[in-house]
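Task card 7
Instruction: Convert sequence to structure tokens.
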Amino acid sequence: MFLPLLHVLAALALAAQATPLEHEPTRTVHSDAVAPPNCFPALGFTMPTAVPSSLTNWWCDFSTEYAFVGFSYEVTACQSLAELKSDFKTIRKTFKGRYIRMYGFCDTEGFYNNVVEAAWDAGIGVHALIWFGFDGTDQWIGRRDALFGILHSNPKAKFVTRALQFGSEPLFDFVLDPPDLAAQVTAAKANLSSLQIPVTISELAFGYQEREDEGSQDVLDAIDLIDAHMLPFFSTQASIANNSFPLVLTDLDWFIDNGEGKKIYFTENGWPSVTSSGVQPNSPSAVANVQNEHDYSTVLDSHCSFFKTVPGGGVGWFWHIYSDNMEPGYGLFDVNGNMKFPFSPRTSC
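Output:
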């Protein structure tokens, strides 16, 4: 299911993007570049036959999770367990993905149990999501409580849930006042502390910037890690994807300067192959086609060494999104299930 309003809002947000840097800054290189195969969800890790008794030494270090880490994966279609298992295994085995980042919502009772089971079966981790939506309702409260219940009751859940995202662009969408959102993050951290699940929000740099006077820094202070949206197609300075990296650096450097050394992932991150009513550029020079979608992935892949050196353990990036059936124009796969372009990004360097 396509959620078009998100990109209408993202387009407006990134129209205010600042002048990009012309050159990459120099970073300090991390020594532990590649995850050993004895931690989850490292490539080569073998899932145990039984659920471990402890999370001790379970998760790979954040510093090994840079470059390509997986796909955003929309769940509004409420996929069956069989479909989740098939897709997650493809992400893991074909593309060497270590994670899926949930997008959208499925309110079918117990759905996250299926996500957990499919992730365990595929040996892949999850950035879970509490979806707020755009209509100002309080449905998110029920989604929060249902997800918390499964995280506590399903014995596998804490072993595949790498992080909990409290909304997708909740600051930019004005779903809660920043102090209230920060309080929700803090309460979630307390609720999930025994499960050792970090809590964050998935947000544009502009989402924080536009609500700075209302206390958005409180949210940035409260989150455990940074799930950043990176959609340079919507910049007023956008042209072709091959020219996009300075735009990426502008927002990335804002997160580095204000993020207190926290781990950074690009969770909603891509370039569209088509425009639509919900995906319109803010620059007359911005080009949307399959070649530019492909080129953007190549731009990211070519900066693997740079991403490895970013403070906080490097930048891991997701591709938004798995299929055009989820969000037209952004998928790696088209609506007929065919790959739109070759895709084999680096997972380490």
